[in-house]
UniProtKB/TrEMBL annotation:
The keyword Nucleus does not apply. Keywords: Hydrolase, Magnesium, Manganese, Metal-binding. Gene3D superfamilies: Nucleoside Triphosphate Pyrophosphohydrolase. Residues 28-208 form the Nudix hydrolase domain. The keyword Manganese applies. InterPro entries: CoAse (IPR045121), NUDIX_hydrolase-like_dom_sf (IPR015797), NUDIX_hydrolase_dom (IPR000086). GO terms for molecular function: coenzyme A diphosphatase activity; metal ion binding. This is Pcd1p. The gene is PCD1. GO terms for biological process: coenzyme A catabolic process.
Length: 307
């Protein structure tokens, strides 16, 4: 594994948040996603993403991190993320069962909550997926770790056509009603603005402004006649840009947010305190919210998502 990838894992492991509004919201307003990192065939950190099934009522056909809504008030962010990842792409949430398949999942950290277009608090957990014979995150973070050579069969654990861990390819995710494709992207890609693969512009949602990102990802496995690239944008892109910023300790080349500003905790907290995130959801009201009216046209909350 490249030293930059090792350092990124260490930084992510050390990243902590004090608390989150996610824990104070009704469970109907809670969602979680899993940023599953792994050593890809180039020795960098890859992240597993999905294309949502066209049959879904929300965000169909879009690139997304595996995840979904909480089932009850007692589920933690990480439990929701692992359960949904299992349901979507077959990557079991049972650590013992995962080890029996030759892999382990090392928890790294949880990011602040982000606000989705339908006013859910989406909190990302980040974990490191590895073959069980590869160094764990505890090994990597130890003072005696020297990036020793990985076992030979570690390299054969990848599908080099898709650049996904073999365990993902071995599961029939086609049985899922939520996912139509699984793919991977190098995490450090989300720090750069190569015009061949990136476009961005400021956007406005009810008076709330932020920099929107669109990243083109080459499609490594496609049928004849299918489009040759996939688009990662919106909330998914924002989470991955922030993951890259924290991991690689590097600001992105494109306009993003104020340095050190991750997630939408302050906005979500304000909405919660104003009674705008009740347990019973009103989809039409959520989608048509006017933040200028809710917060006031001069509120500093309106610019928290921009630079």
């Amino acid at each position: 594994m490249k030293q930059t990838a090792i350092d990124a894992l260490k930084r992510l492991r050390s990243f902590k948040i004090k608390s989150s509004v996610w824990d104070d919201l009704p469970y109907t307003r809670r969602a979680a996603v899993l940023v599953t990192l792994f050593r890809n065939s180039g020795g960098d950190l890859g992240s597993i993403l999905t294309i949502r099934a066209s049959s879904l009522s929300t965000f169909s056909g879009q690139a997304a991190l595996p995840g979904g809504k909480a089932d009850d008030i007692n589920e933690t962010t990480y439990q929701v993320a692992r359960r949904e990842t299992h349901e979507e792409i077959g990557l079991t949430s049972d650590d013992d069962a995962l080890r029996s398949q030759g892999y382990a999942m090392d928890y790294l950290t949880t990011l602040p909550a982000y606000m989705s277009r339908n006013l859910l608090a989406v909190q990302p957990s980040i974990a490191y997926l590895r073959p069980i014979n590869a160094p764990s995150i505890d090994d990597i973070c130890s003072e005696h770790y020297n990036n020793r050579i990985f076992p030979h069969d570690f390299y054969s654990s990848f599908n080099h056509k898709t650049d996904l861990p073999g365990i993902i390819d071995s599961h029939a995710f086609s049985d899922s009603t939520e996912v139509q494709e699984v793919f991977s992207v190098p995490v450090n890609k989300f720090l750069y603005d190569n015009p061949k693969y990136y476009t961005g512009k400021p956007v406005d949602w009810g008076g709330l402004t932020w920099n929107q990102h669109w990243f083109k990802v080459i499609r490594r496995h496609k049928a004849i006649g299918e489009v040759g690239w996939l688009s990662v944008w919106g909330l998914t892109a924002n989470i991955l840009v922030d993951t890259a910023i924290i991991g690689y300790d590097q600001q992105p080349a494109m306009p993003h947010r104020q340095k050190g500003q991750f997630g939408d905790e302050e906005i979500l907290r304000a909405l919660h305190e104003l009674g705008k995130l009740p347990e019973e959801r009103n989809k039409k009201a959520d989608l048509n919210i006017q933040f200028k009216e809710v917060f006031g046209k001069d509120s500093p909350l309106l610019s928290l998502r921009s630079m």
